[in-house]
Protein backbone atom coordinates (compact mmCIF):
# COMPACT_ATOMS: atom_id res chain seq x y z
CA UNK A 1 0.00 0.00 0.00
CA UNK A 2 1.52 3.38 -1.01
CA UNK A 3 1.46 6.80 0.64
CA UNK A 4 -1.61 7.89 -1.35
CA UNK A 5 -3.74 5.24 0.35
CA UNK A 6 -2.36 6.24 3.74
CA UNK A 7 -3.12 9.91 3.10
CA UNK A 8 -6.62 9.05 1.90
CA UNK A 9 -7.30 7.11 5.09
CA UNK A 10 -5.77 9.85 7.28
CA UNK A 11 -7.94 12.53 5.64
CA UNK A 12 -11.09 10.49 6.12
CA UNK A 13 -10.30 9.80 9.78
CA UNK A 14 -9.42 13.47 10.41
CA UNK A 15 -12.69 14.61 8.86
CA UNK A 16 -14.67 12.19 11.02
CA UNK A 17 -12.87 13.36 14.16
CA UNK A 18 -13.57 16.99 13.31
CA UNK A 19 -17.27 16.36 12.78
CA UNK A 20 -17.62 14.36 16.00
CA UNK A 21 -15.50 16.40 18.40
CA UNK A 22 -14.79 19.76 16.82
CA UNK A 23 -11.60 21.61 17.68
CA UNK A 24 -10.57 20.64 21.24
CA UNK A 25 -9.60 23.46 23.60
CA UNK A 26 -6.51 21.95 25.19
CA UNK A 27 -3.15 23.50 26.09
CA UNK A 28 -1.25 20.94 23.98
CA UNK A 29 -3.24 21.71 20.83
CA UNK A 30 -0.64 22.04 18.01
CA UNK A 31 -2.05 25.43 16.94
CA UNK A 32 -1.80 26.67 20.55
CA UNK A 33 1.77 25.44 20.64
CA UNK A 34 2.48 27.28 17.38
CA UNK A 35 0.92 30.40 18.90
CA UNK A 36 3.17 30.08 21.95
CA UNK A 37 6.16 29.62 19.66
CA UNK A 38 5.23 32.81 17.76
CA UNK A 39 4.91 34.82 20.99
CA UNK A 40 8.20 33.47 22.35
CA UNK A 41 10.04 34.13 19.07
CA UNK A 42 8.68 37.67 18.88
CA UNK A 43 9.94 38.45 22.39
CA UNK A 44 13.53 37.47 21.68
CA UNK A 45 13.79 38.56 18.04
CA UNK A 46 12.60 42.16 18.42
CA UNK A 47 15.58 43.23 20.63
CA UNK A 48 18.04 41.76 18.11
CA UNK A 49 17.07 44.20 15.35
CA UNK A 50 17.00 48.02 15.17
CA UNK A 51 13.71 49.74 16.01
CA UNK A 52 13.43 51.04 12.47
CA UNK A 53 11.22 50.24 9.50
CA UNK A 54 13.86 48.01 7.91
CA UNK A 55 14.90 46.48 11.21
CA UNK A 56 11.37 45.48 12.18
CA UNK A 57 10.72 44.00 8.75
CA UNK A 58 13.93 41.97 9.04
CA UNK A 59 12.85 40.74 12.48
CA UNK A 60 9.48 39.75 11.03
CA UNK A 61 11.19 37.76 8.26
CA UNK A 62 13.28 35.97 10.88
CA UNK A 63 10.10 35.17 12.81
CA UNK A 64 8.46 33.65 9.73
CA UNK A 65 11.47 31.51 8.80
CA UNK A 66 12.10 30.24 12.32
CA UNK A 67 8.45 29.44 13.13
CA UNK A 68 7.85 27.69 9.81
CA UNK A 69 10.96 25.55 10.18
CA UNK A 70 9.83 24.31 13.59
CA UNK A 71 6.11 24.03 12.72
CA UNK A 72 6.85 21.98 9.60
CA UNK A 73 9.91 19.96 10.64
CA UNK A 74 8.40 18.60 13.86
CA UNK A 75 5.25 17.03 12.31
CA UNK A 76 7.33 15.83 9.36
CA UNK A 77 9.79 14.05 11.65
CA UNK A 78 7.00 12.58 13.78
CA UNK A 79 4.94 11.26 10.85
CA UNK A 80 7.92 9.87 8.92
CA UNK A 81 9.25 8.17 12.03
CA UNK A 82 5.93 6.56 12.90
CA UNK A 83 5.24 5.48 9.31
CA UNK A 84 8.60 3.67 9.38
CA UNK A 85 7.70 2.11 12.71
CA UNK A 86 4.34 0.86 11.42
CA UNK A 87 1.89 2.18 8.77
CA UNK A 88 -1.02 2.09 11.23
CA UNK A 89 0.90 4.28 13.67
CA UNK A 90 1.71 6.72 10.88
CA UNK A 91 -1.89 6.93 9.65
CA UNK A 92 -3.29 7.44 13.16
CA UNK A 93 -0.75 10.15 13.95
CA UNK A 94 -1.23 11.93 10.65
CA UNK A 95 -5.01 11.82 10.99
CA UNK A 96 -4.74 13.31 14.50
CA UNK A 97 -2.46 16.12 13.30
CA UNK A 98 -4.77 16.84 10.37
CA UNK A 99 -7.78 16.84 12.69
CA UNK A 100 -6.20 19.70 14.64
CA UNK A 101 -5.95 21.80 11.46
CA UNK A 102 -9.63 21.47 10.49
CA UNK A 103 -12.25 23.78 11.99
CA UNK A 104 -15.58 23.10 10.28
CA UNK A 105 -17.37 21.75 13.34
CA UNK A 106 -15.97 24.40 15.69
CA UNK A 107 -16.85 27.16 13.24
CA UNK A 108 -20.41 25.88 13.20
CA UNK A 109 -20.61 25.71 17.01
CA UNK A 110 -19.09 29.13 17.66
CA UNK A 111 -21.12 30.97 15.03
CA UNK A 112 -24.36 29.32 16.11
CA UNK A 113 -23.50 30.32 19.69
CA UNK A 114 -23.79 33.93 18.49
CA UNK A 115 -27.23 33.22 17.04
CA UNK A 116 -28.34 31.45 20.22
CA UNK A 117 -27.06 34.30 22.40
CA UNK A 118 -28.98 36.88 20.37
CA UNK A 119 -32.11 34.74 20.51
CA UNK A 120 -32.01 34.05 24.24
CA UNK A 121 -30.35 37.09 25.80
CA UNK A 122 -30.19 39.91 23.25
CA UNK A 123 -27.50 42.27 22.04
CA UNK A 124 -25.04 42.26 24.96
CA UNK A 125 -24.79 38.47 24.92
CA UNK A 126 -24.50 38.48 21.14
CA UNK A 127 -21.66 41.01 21.25
CA UNK A 128 -19.83 38.92 23.82
CA UNK A 129 -20.30 35.73 21.79
CA UNK A 130 -19.16 37.28 18.52
CA UNK A 131 -16.09 38.79 20.23
CA UNK A 132 -14.83 35.20 20.61
CA UNK A 133 -14.61 34.67 16.85
CA UNK A 134 -13.73 38.06 15.33
CA UNK A 135 -10.75 40.40 15.63
CA UNK A 136 -12.68 43.67 15.43
CA UNK A 137 -14.03 45.74 18.32
CA UNK A 138 -17.50 44.51 19.23
CA UNK A 139 -18.59 46.71 22.16
CA UNK A 140 -20.61 49.13 20.02
CA UNK A 141 -22.00 46.73 17.43
CA UNK A 142 -25.74 46.78 16.82
CA UNK A 143 -27.58 43.47 16.46
CA UNK A 144 -27.27 43.80 12.69
CA UNK A 145 -23.54 44.42 13.14
CA UNK A 146 -23.20 41.29 15.27
CA UNK A 147 -25.01 39.20 12.66
CA UNK A 148 -22.89 40.59 9.83
CA UNK A 149 -19.68 39.95 11.80
CA UNK A 150 -20.70 36.33 12.39
CA UNK A 151 -21.70 35.76 8.75
CA UNK A 152 -18.46 37.35 7.48
CA UNK A 153 -16.42 35.15 9.82
CA UNK A 154 -18.17 32.01 8.58
CA UNK A 155 -17.54 33.08 4.99
CA UNK A 156 -13.85 33.87 5.46
CA UNK A 157 -13.12 30.82 7.60
CA UNK A 158 -14.76 28.51 5.09
CA UNK A 159 -11.48 29.01 3.27
CA UNK A 160 -9.02 29.50 6.16
CA UNK A 161 -10.43 26.81 8.44
CA UNK A 162 -11.82 24.23 6.03
CA UNK A 163 -10.86 24.27 2.35
CA UNK A 164 -7.29 25.58 2.69
CA UNK A 165 -6.22 22.92 5.24
CA UNK A 166 -7.77 20.23 3.01
CA UNK A 167 -5.93 21.69 -0.01
CA UNK A 168 -2.54 21.65 1.73
CA UNK A 169 -3.16 18.24 3.30
CA UNK A 170 -3.82 16.96 -0.21
CA UNK A 171 -0.48 18.34 -1.38
CA UNK A 172 1.75 17.22 1.48
CA UNK A 173 -0.21 15.61 4.28
CA UNK A 174 -0.03 16.75 7.90
CA UNK A 175 3.34 18.59 7.63
CA UNK A 176 2.04 20.74 4.77
CA UNK A 177 -1.26 21.42 6.57
CA UNK A 178 0.68 22.43 9.70
CA UNK A 179 2.83 24.72 7.54
CA UNK A 180 -0.34 26.43 6.34
CA UNK A 181 -1.81 26.76 9.83
CA UNK A 182 1.45 28.26 11.09
CA UNK A 183 1.31 30.91 8.37
CA UNK A 184 -2.35 31.58 9.13
CA UNK A 185 -1.69 31.81 12.87
CA UNK A 186 1.22 34.23 12.39
CA UNK A 187 -0.98 36.47 10.26
CA UNK A 188 -3.73 36.46 12.91
CA UNK A 189 -1.20 37.33 15.65
CA UNK A 190 1.17 39.82 14.02
CA UNK A 191 -0.36 40.72 10.66
CA UNK A 192 -1.93 43.97 11.85
CA UNK A 193 -1.44 47.46 10.43
CA UNK A 194 -1.05 49.17 13.79
CA UNK A 195 1.94 50.80 15.49
CA UNK A 196 3.23 47.51 16.94
CA UNK A 197 3.03 45.31 13.84
CA UNK A 198 2.89 47.60 10.79
CA UNK A 199 6.39 46.53 9.73
CA UNK A 200 7.10 43.55 11.96
CA UNK A 201 4.06 41.69 10.61
CA UNK A 202 4.61 42.51 6.93
CA UNK A 203 6.30 39.20 6.02
CA UNK A 204 3.64 37.11 7.80
CA UNK A 205 0.79 39.04 6.18
CA UNK A 206 2.26 38.84 2.69
CA UNK A 207 2.98 35.13 3.01
CA UNK A 208 -0.58 34.53 4.24
CA UNK A 209 -1.88 36.34 1.15
CA UNK A 210 0.29 34.12 -1.04
CA UNK A 211 -0.59 30.73 0.47
CA UNK A 212 -4.31 31.57 0.33
CA UNK A 213 -4.43 32.69 -3.31
CA UNK A 214 -5.54 29.30 -4.66
CA UNK A 215 -7.57 28.01 -1.66
CA UNK A 216 -9.63 31.22 -1.42
CA UNK A 217 -10.63 31.05 -5.06
CA UNK A 218 -11.26 27.32 -4.87
CA UNK A 219 -13.46 27.98 -1.83
CA UNK A 220 -15.43 30.58 -3.78
CA UNK A 221 -16.03 28.13 -6.63
CA UNK A 222 -17.11 25.37 -4.26
CA UNK A 223 -19.35 27.79 -2.33
CA UNK A 224 -20.99 28.87 -5.58
CA UNK A 225 -21.75 25.22 -6.37
CA UNK A 226 -22.92 24.56 -2.81
CA UNK A 227 -25.36 27.48 -2.98
CA UNK A 228 -27.13 25.85 -5.92
CA UNK A 229 -28.02 22.99 -3.56
CA UNK A 230 -28.69 24.67 -0.21
CA UNK A 231 -30.88 27.46 -1.58
CA UNK A 232 -33.58 24.83 -2.11
CA UNK A 233 -33.62 23.96 1.60
CA UNK A 234 -36.24 25.02 4.13
CA UNK A 235 -33.82 27.46 5.79
CA UNK A 236 -33.95 29.57 2.64
CA UNK A 237 -37.76 29.87 2.76
CA UNK A 238 -38.83 33.45 3.08
CA UNK A 239 -35.65 34.67 1.38
CA UNK A 240 -35.54 35.48 -2.29
CA UNK A 241 -33.52 32.67 -3.84
CA UNK A 242 -30.63 34.13 -5.77
CA UNK A 243 -29.78 32.72 -9.18
CA UNK A 244 -26.31 31.71 -10.32
CA UNK A 245 -26.19 34.88 -12.42
CA UNK A 246 -27.04 37.05 -9.42
CA UNK A 247 -24.35 35.52 -7.23
CA UNK A 248 -21.78 35.54 -10.04
CA UNK A 249 -22.43 39.24 -10.67
CA UNK A 250 -21.77 40.11 -7.02
CA UNK A 251 -18.66 37.93 -7.01
CA UNK A 252 -17.23 39.52 -10.14
CA UNK A 253 -17.91 43.01 -8.84
CA UNK A 254 -16.85 42.63 -5.18
CA UNK A 255 -14.32 39.78 -5.00
CA UNK A 256 -11.48 42.30 -4.67
CA UNK A 257 -13.27 44.71 -2.34
CA UNK A 258 -10.94 43.96 0.58
CA UNK A 259 -7.35 45.16 0.91
CA UNK A 260 -6.48 41.48 1.23
CA UNK A 261 -6.57 39.72 -2.16
CA UNK A 262 -8.38 36.76 -0.63
CA UNK A 263 -10.92 37.69 2.07
CA UNK A 264 -13.59 39.02 -0.26
CA UNK A 265 -13.57 35.89 -2.42
CA UNK A 266 -15.91 33.91 -0.18
CA UNK A 267 -17.54 36.95 1.42
CA UNK A 268 -18.78 38.13 -1.96
CA UNK A 269 -20.28 34.70 -2.68
CA UNK A 270 -21.91 34.67 0.77
CA UNK A 271 -23.33 38.18 0.32
CA UNK A 272 -24.65 37.36 -3.13
CA UNK A 273 -26.17 34.06 -1.97
CA UNK A 274 -27.98 35.66 0.97
CA UNK A 275 -28.95 38.84 -0.86
CA UNK A 276 -27.48 41.07 1.86
CA UNK A 277 -24.72 43.64 2.18
CA UNK A 278 -21.65 42.71 4.22
CA UNK A 279 -18.35 44.37 5.23
CA UNK A 280 -18.13 48.16 5.39
CA UNK A 281 -16.46 50.22 8.12
CA UNK A 282 -15.11 48.35 11.16
CA UNK A 283 -13.22 49.30 14.32
CA UNK A 284 -9.97 47.58 15.34
CA UNK A 285 -8.19 48.48 18.57
CA UNK A 286 -10.27 51.65 18.84
CA UNK A 287 -9.48 52.86 15.30
CA UNK A 288 -12.22 52.91 12.66
CA UNK A 289 -11.12 51.48 9.32
CA UNK A 290 -13.15 52.58 6.31
CA UNK A 291 -13.83 49.64 4.02
CA UNK A 292 -16.06 49.16 0.98
CA UNK A 293 -19.25 47.16 1.30
CA UNK A 294 -19.76 43.77 -0.34
CA UNK A 295 -23.06 42.70 -1.90
CA UNK A 296 -26.32 44.52 -2.59
CA UNK A 297 -28.50 45.83 0.23
CA UNK A 298 -31.62 43.97 -0.95
CA UNK A 299 -32.87 43.27 2.57
CA UNK A 300 -31.71 43.76 6.17
CA UNK A 301 -29.76 40.92 7.75
CA UNK A 302 -31.63 38.72 10.23
CA UNK A 303 -30.63 36.17 12.87
CA UNK A 304 -31.49 33.26 10.58
CA UNK A 305 -28.72 34.41 8.22
CA UNK A 306 -26.13 32.97 10.59
CA UNK A 307 -27.69 29.50 10.27
CA UNK A 308 -27.90 29.94 6.49
CA UNK A 309 -24.23 30.91 6.37
CA UNK A 310 -23.33 27.83 8.42
CA UNK A 311 -25.35 25.61 6.09
CA UNK A 312 -23.53 27.06 3.09
CA UNK A 313 -20.17 26.55 4.81
CA UNK A 314 -20.98 22.90 5.61
CA UNK A 315 -22.11 22.20 2.05
CA UNK A 316 -18.92 23.82 0.75
CA UNK A 317 -16.85 21.67 3.13
CA UNK A 318 -18.57 18.49 1.92
CA UNK A 319 -17.78 19.39 -1.68
CA UNK A 320 -14.17 20.10 -0.69
CA UNK A 321 -13.84 16.74 1.03
CA UNK A 322 -15.40 14.93 -1.92
CA UNK A 323 -13.08 16.65 -4.38
CA UNK A 324 -10.02 15.77 -2.27
CA UNK A 325 -11.07 12.13 -1.93
CA UNK A 326 -11.79 11.84 -5.66
CA UNK A 327 -8.31 13.19 -6.46
CA UNK A 328 -6.62 10.82 -4.01
CA UNK A 329 -8.60 7.79 -5.22
CA UNK A 330 -7.69 8.69 -8.81
CA UNK A 331 -3.99 8.85 -7.97
CA UNK A 332 -4.25 5.61 -5.98
CA UNK A 333 -5.76 3.81 -8.97
CA UNK A 334 -3.18 5.21 -11.38
How does this structure look, described?
With 334 residues, the protein is mainly alpha-helical. The protein contains twelve helices and four strands; from the N terminus they run αααααααααααββββα. β2 (282-284) and β3 form a beta hairpin. α9 runs parallel beside α11 (263-274). The longest helix has 48 residues, at 143-190. It is globular and about 55 Å long. The mean pLDDT is 91.
In short:
It contains twelve helices and four strands. With 334 residues, the chain is mainly α.
Task: Supply the key terms.
mainly alpha; 12 helices; 334 residues; 4 strands; two-stranded antiparallel sheet; 72% helix; two-stranded antiparallel ribbon
Going by helix content, strand content and strand pairing, the class is: mainly alpha
Oligomer designation: single chain
Low-confidence stretches are none
The residue-averaged pLDDT reads: 91
How do the SSEs run, as a string of H and E?
HHHHHHHHHHHEEEEH
Q: How much helix is in the residues?
A: over 70%
**Strand coverage percent:** under 5%
Number of helices: 12
Spatially, the strands of the biggest sheet line up as 1-4
- What's the total count of β strands? 4
Q: Whole-number radius of gyration?
A: 20 Å
Terminal CA distance: 13 Å
How would a textbook summarize the main sheet? 2 strands, antiparallel
**General shape:** globular
Amino acid sequence: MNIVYYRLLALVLAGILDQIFGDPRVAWHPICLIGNLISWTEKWTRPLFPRSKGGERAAGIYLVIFVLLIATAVPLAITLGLYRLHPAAGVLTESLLLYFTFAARSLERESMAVSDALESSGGDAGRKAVSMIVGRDTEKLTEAGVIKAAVETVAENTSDGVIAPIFYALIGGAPCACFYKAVNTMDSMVGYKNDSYRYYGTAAARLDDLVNLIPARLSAILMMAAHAVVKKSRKWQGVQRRSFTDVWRIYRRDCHAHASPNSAQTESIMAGALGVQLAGDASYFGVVHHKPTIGDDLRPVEREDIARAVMLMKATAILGWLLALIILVTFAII
